[in-house]
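Predict fold of Probable nicotinate-nucleotide pyrophosphorylase [carboxylating]; 284 aa.
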Amino acid sequence: MQEEIVSSVRKIILDALKEDMVEGDITTEVLIPKDDMSLRKAKIVANSEGVLCGIEVTKEVFRLIFPEIKFIQKLKDGDTFCKKDTLLEIEGPPWAILKGERVALNFLQRLCGIATLTRKFVELALPYGVKILDTRKTTPNLRLLEKYAVKVGGGFNHRYNLTSGILIKDNHIKVVGSVKEAVEKAIKNAPPFSRVEVEVTSLKEAEEVAELGVDVIMLDNLNLEEMEKAIKIIREKSQKTLIEVSGGVTLENVEGIARLRPDFISVGKITHSAPSLDISLKIL
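Predicted 3D structure, encoded as C-alpha cells:
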C-alpha cells in the first residue's frame, strides 16, 4: 500500500482506536504497568487461505500506539497465503500489542476478505477478457480502503464518488422525463472529458439508448438471454459504446455472463458482502 494511502486513512485508524479505547484499555492497564518497556514478540496468523490486503494499515495501527514498534514482513499486499501462514511478526511492549490487536485485525480481516472475494470473481472472468468492477456500495468512510482492496484482488474501480462520472439511473430518468432527454442534457452539460453512462433494464431501453451515442451502457438485472440479445444490439449500433453488466452477479453465474463478452461486470457483493477472513494474533 502506498504511503499516501496510509496517510489519507490515518484519521480513520485514529478514530477506530478511539472507538475501541474511549478512556483506555482497562484490562491491559490493570495487568501491565504503563512503564513496562520489556519487548515481546507476536505474530499475526491466517486461519484460512486468501489474498493479503491491508498489511500497511495493520502496521500503522500499532505505530500510532507505539511508534518504535518493529515488524518482520515476508508477504506484501496481493500475495496469496495459506492456512497457518504467518502474515506479520511484531516486536514491542506487550501493552502496545494488546491495545492494537483488535483494531488491527478488524482492518486486516475486512480488507483481506474483499481482496480474496474479488480475486475469485476476477479469475472466473479473466479468460473472456472481461474486467470486474466494484460499485459505491461500500462501508461509510471506508471506501478508499475497500476500493484499494478490490484493486489488490485484481478488480477495477468504478466511480469513487458522485463526481467521478455521469451515471444516469432509473430515478434520474423518472425525474427528467425520458432517457433521451436525460442523455441529451448530460452530454450538453457534462464537464469536459466526462464519460456518460446509462443504466437500462430492458431490451427496449437498450436499443433506444444504443442510438444516443453514450459512452457506456449498463445492463442491469437482465437474464442471460436478454443480455445476449442486448449486447448484440448495442454492438451492431456502435462499436465504440462500452457495455457493463450489473445486478445479481454471483460466483455461480459470473462466468456465464463473461462468456457473452461485455466489457465490464460490476459486482456490489465484493464490497458490501465480502466475508471477513479468519485471522488471529498470538503473543509468543
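The first helix runs from residue 3 to 8.
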